[in-house]
Design brief:
18 strands; eight-stranded mixed β-sheet; FAD/NAD(P)-binding domain; 22% strand; 425 residues; binds flavin-adenine dinucleotide; alpha/beta; 12 helices; single chain
């Protein structure tokens, strides 16, 4: 079993990393070479700006290349619960922004000719307990009446048409959900940004950021210093660099994934005949999908821990046991890959984007970001060009997470709380 992301191991290596020294002046410096940073870089460079992407590791080496491979529309939240706190109009607008995110990815894949198996399979949300189906039915009424007219309810006695498991009790199908190969998409996006003229520097961690007189900034990296007219922070769940203001608002939460060996066509059809992306209704639930060559990519918050090779392997064993509970027909199936990554969580699970002290930022997608990160990269390029109204996240306040100063010591307690909620309801 390889302890690395299937997406990165099965994608070509990015071939256009800049080898020029990091020095001089650029119009825009972008910190972070994940989907947000690369998408912004491509749009800004296409508009004629000189752009430097400063990535501490390899492009899409963090969340963007380590996720579950789902590119779903809609919010992480129950629409009704979100509407209760921010009103149905704002909640619906945010829902539509995530929809637009999937459209953005689809259009980008087509216009840049990225070979990443993007396909609109639809997503199924699975009731993990009989009582959860009633809740799903209730939320379906609001969704169908507002933002998701084609949503389909799958009754408990029909669920076997969708999933070959005794573990589920009905579900909802969101037909606009999609999936793709995240490594091939990410490398394709990076190549497109480089083709547009962006200089993409790998192994260039940003260690200092200073506002100069006027609008400019001095950006210090491990490989040199440059001056930038504008700066975009697209740093995800990062724990490095001089960004403590963001770090007090983002909690890095480990999430873990296993990928099976390719299944036979019959076995694949027996577990997921409709080949959708699937998520469950538990707080500490699972997410899974098939690849075109019939691997099952099965993820979840197996443990409330950070990701590291030892931690990932422990989580992989928990995930495998859970996978076999749901799909005992996979008992003879080998696990080829196991990996983990850090999700950039906000307290309310809504992303944040804007500008503070002359520095722009977009992050906090809370596990629902393969589409929004690409979308927000394009949007932030417009915002930085003066179109502040383009930002669908504008105006959301963003207090610090209480007690969060360094490593997230409170995660095990949060885990206990959600386990208790899952046991009770
Ligand atoms: C295990 C896992 C499963 C997920 N599954 C899904 C899913 O199925 N569907 C979905 O929609 N979303 C999913 N997500 C979330 C999604 O992957 C992210 O929201 C999205 O990729 C965020 O992209 P990003 O560019 O903002 O951040 P990232 O991809 O994290 O990129 C940030 C980059 O910034 C760099 N960086 C940080 N600090 C510095 C610094 N000081 N100097 C230079 N560079 C720096 C990092 O190295 C990193 O490459 C998942 C996330 C994880 C971790």
């Amino acid at each position: 079993m390889k302890l690395e992301p299937y997406w990165l191991d099965s994608a070509p290596r990015f071939s256009s990393a800049s080898s020029v020294p990091i020095e001089g002046k650029v119009d825009v410096a972008i910190v972070g070479g994940g989907f947000t940073g690369l998408s912004a870089a491509r749009t800004l460079a296409k508009a004629g700006a000189s752009v430097a992407v400063l990535e501490s590791g390899r492009v899409v080496g963090e969340a963007s290349g380590r996720n579950g491979g789902h590119c779903n529309n809609g919010l992480a939240h129950d629409l009704g619960s979100l509407a209760a706190s921010i009103g149905i109009e704002r909640a619906s607008a945010l829902y539509r922004a995530f929809d637009a995110g999937v459209d953005t990815v689809e259009a980008l894949v087509a216009s840049e000719g990225i070979d990443c198996d993007f396909i609109r399979t639809g997503k199924i949300k699975l009731a993990a307990k009989p009582a959860h189906f009633a809740k799903l039915q209730k939320s379906a009424e609001l969704l169908q009446a507002t933002v998701e007219p084609d949503l389909a309810v799958v009754k408990p006695d029909e669920i076997r048409n969708e999933i070959g498991s005794n573990g589920f009790h009905g579900g909802l199908v969101f037909p606009r959900g999609a999936h793709m190969h995240m490594g091939r998409f990410g490398v394709g996006l990076a190549e497109a940004a480089a083709r547009a003229g962006a200089a993409i520097h790998e192994n260039a961690a940003v260690t200092g950021l200073e506002r100069l007189a006027g609008q400019a900034h001095r950006v210090v990296t491990m490989r040199g210093t440059l001056e930038a007219g504008q700066v975009l922070l697209a740093t995800g769940a990062s724990r490095q660099g001089p960004f403590s203001w963001l770090r007090r608002r983002i909690v890095p939460v480990g999430s873990f994934i296993i990928a099976t060996e390719p299944l036979s066509a019959e076995l694949a059809a027996s577990i997921m005949p409709t080949r959708r992306t699937a998520t469950t209704t538990m707080n500490i639930g699972n997410y899974f999908r098939l690849t075109p060559d019939n691997r099952l990519i099965f993820g979840g918050r197996a443990r409330f821990a950070l990701s590291s090779p030892t931690s990932d392997a422990k989580s992989g064993a928990i995930l495998k046991a859970r996978m076999l509970e749901l799909f005992p027909q996979l008992s003879g199936t080998g696990i080829d890959y196991c990996w983990g990554g850090l999700v950039d969580m906000t307290a309310d699970r809504l992303p944040r984007a804007g500008e503070r002290d002359g520095v722009f930022y977009a992050l906090g997608y809370s596990g629902h970001g393969t589409q929004m990160s690409v979308h927000m990269g394009q949007i932030m390029a417009r915002v930085m060009g003066g179109d502040a109204a383009a930002n669908p996240l504008a105006g959301l306040d963003w207090p610090v997470v209480p007690g969060h100063f360094g490593p997230p010591w409170f995660l095990p307690f949060v885990g206990m709380y959600y386990r208790y909620q899952d046991w009770r309801h």
